[in-house]
Design brief:
Number of helices: 4
CATH topology: Immunoglobulin-like
CATH superfamily: Immunoglobulins
Number of domains: 1
Shape: globular
Order of helices and strands: HEHEEEEHEHEEE
Number of strands: 9
CATH architecture: Sandwich
Structural class: alpha+beta
Largest sheet: 9 strands, mixed
Length: 184
């Protein structure tokens, strides 16, 4: 093995297993899952890189993946938290569904998740969010460790950022409620 390859391998190992000064482990990031299917809808989903979610519907249903080391081997024991930038509060997101858990590969560093709607996430009526055109959340994961719970966050917040957009939310007028839900 050449010296440069050895340095690169060591750098990668140190990155994956690094612990920041405050005991927070890094997530690599989040991204769109099944980009090939999503691309048929629009060109926003061209990549399955873990660079954050720029377009999510207020109604939820966007399929994402969460990539990082130290995820618990049982996908459903990883607890997802979303910190609202606008509301300055952190909310525990709904647990992974059985479908999410089945499609996850935590031992390979990836779990899948279907984003909840904003009103389900925050436990409020959808009318409360009529004045918001965008809402930004920063995702983190708490994973049970061998001795203590691990707080997994992105080293760069932009890689774990989710932007819910009203412009990307389908609405039907003259229907009550005026929102179309997945599997409704």
């Amino acid at each position: 093995m050449s010296f440069n390859k050895a340095i690169a391998a060591l750098s990668y190992i140190l990155y994956v297993t690094s612990v920041a000064g405050n005991g927070v482990l890094d997530l690599e990031g989040i991204g769109y899952r099944e980009a090939a299917l999503q691309t048929a809808k629009t060109s926003f989903f061209k990549s399955e890189d873990a660079n954050g979610i720029s377009y999510a519907s207020f109604n939820g249903g966007t399929n994402i993946f969460i990539k990082g080391a130290h995820l618990h081997e049982n996908p459903q024991t990883n607890t997802i938290y979303m910190r609202s930038v606008e509301l300055e509060s952190t909310i525990q997101a709904p647990q992974l569904t059985e479908d999410d858990a089945f499609q996850s590969q935590p031992l390979l560093g990836q779990i899948t998740y279907r984003l909840p709607s904003v009103h389900v996430l925050l436990g409020a009526s959808q009318d409360v969010f009529d004045t918001f055109y965008e809402m930004t959340f920063i995702l983190s994961v708490k994973a049970p460790g061998t001795e203590e719970e691990l707080d997994l966050q992105c080293g760069s917040e932009s890689r774990c950022k989710i932007v819910y957009r009203k412009a990307y939310t389908p609405r039907i007028f003259y229907l009550s409620p005026p929102v179309v839900y997945y599997e409704s």
